[in-house]
Design goal:
This protein is of the alpha/beta class and about 280 residues long. It has ten helices and eleven strands.
């Protein structure tokens, strides 16, 4: 039976520590969120992030824009937040509507306020092995592995999914931690053979129960990034019930990677406030 990697438990511990650090720092970090449109899932995620801010002593402000906002209107909002000296971190809630140029919006965020770690500058630092702000989900996963003392160096890791918010930065973090990494995607040949070699398997494919028992090496550590709805229930990419019997460790959905993502966002925001006070060159 696999060890359950309890992301909620670890996130709660880290948020408590963070609250104490912020309380004793003399700093008042502040996070600004930008959401375009009324997508229910995005609205829920924004509320969760603002609640986490309140929990640890980070100020927060939300900018809500109409669903038909143009790229230029969103860029104007980002510029306003870039110039606001009271704002340490800026988060653009993704996905943006189709009419908005997501790449332009992300690139417009000041790198030293890019607490999501998606700016090309910050991604470049990550892939060069000198990370500053790292995307929250991959960084949260690395924290979870470390908290459970799961060795990464020397392992064979497989990441399924190559998105810029999870898959690619995840592969970079694992590489920086001395794993041997394979990234799989929709064009990968002999996918099952690749997956079955993984000692650490990270799934960010976004398909309910895509990873089945026959795809997982016995004793593997399985990290499930997926958030999918199946028969009215929230499930991951991994068929948890079938895989937990052969994995050595596995994250549940919900309660695994999600809470670590939010905790990491809070930590990144606090770090952005520290960077500002240190006047670190960017």
């Amino acid at each position: 039976m696999a060890m359950i990697l309890d992301g909620k438990k670890i996130a709660d511990i880290r948020l408590k520590i963070l609250k104490e650090e912020i309380g004793g720092s003399g700093l008042y970090p502040r996070l600004a969120t930008v959401i375009v449109g009324g997508d229910p899932a995005s609205q829920m995620y924004i509320r969760m992030k603002h609640r986490a801010c309140e929990q640890v002593g980070i100020g927060s402000v939300g900018m809500e824009m109409v669903g038909d906002a143009t790229t230029e209107q969103v860029l104007k909002a980002v510029t306003q937040l870039n110039n606001d000296t009271d704002v340490n971190g800026i988060l653009i809630q993704l996905p943006l509507p189709k009419q908005v140029d997501t790449e332009r919006v992300i690139a417009a965020v000041r790198p030293d306020k890019d607490v999501d770690g998606f700016h090309p500058f910050n991604l470049g630092l990550l892939f060069s092995g000198r990370p500053r702000f790292v995307p929250c989900t991959p960084k949260g996963i690395m924290t979870l592995l470390a908290e459970y003392k799961i060795e990464v160096a020397g392992t064979r890791a497989v990441v399924i999914g190559r998105s810029i918010d999870v898959g690619r930065p995840m592969s970079a973090l694992l590489t920086n931690a001395d794993a041997t990494v394979t990234v799989c995607h929709s064009k990968t040949k002999n996918l099952i053979d690749e997956l079955k070699q993984a000692e650490i398997l990270v799934s960010a494919v976004g398909k309910a129960h895509f990873i089945t028992r026959g795809m997982v090496k016995r004793g593997a550590v399985v990290i499930d990034v997926g958030i999918n709805e199946l028969n009215g229930k929230l499930v991951g990419d991994v068929d948890f019930a079938a895989v937990k019997d052969i994995a050595s460790a596995i994250t549940p959905v919900p309660g695994g990677v999600g809470p670590m993502t939010i905790a990491t966002l809070m930590e990144n925001t606090y770090r952005a406030a520290i960077v500002r006070t240190c006047d670190t060159a960017w």
